[in-house]
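Checklist before submission:
- one chain only
- standard amino acids only
- sequence pasted in full

Submission:
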Amino acid sequence: MKLGEIAHSRAGDKGNISNLSLIAYEESDYEFLKEHITPQKVKTFFKERIKGTVTRYELPKIAAFNFVLKGSLYGGVTRSLALDPHGKSLSSYFLLMEIDENAYCAYKKSLD
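Returned file contents:
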């Protein structure tokens, strides 16, 4: 299943840094996302796009995360000839990440 089935995202940028929010549709899915959407998994998912580090900030009171992707905008808006210099499409792409449907179903069952 796709990440976008249980969460939504929005992208922002500053220089050569992109930040991606990840907000659970259901508050109860926060812990599943916390366990399964790690900084390393995000970096692996975006492959060579991210030249720097990925840092995850946890916001449990609003069932959300903020991922900071350093070195992800090909030099930044004023230095890049990329079609999407602000990286706004990164949030849409992020939501295409595959998550383990069996693990998600087991997690949901454990909440009952």
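Reviewer check: Residues 101-111 form the longest helix (11 residues).
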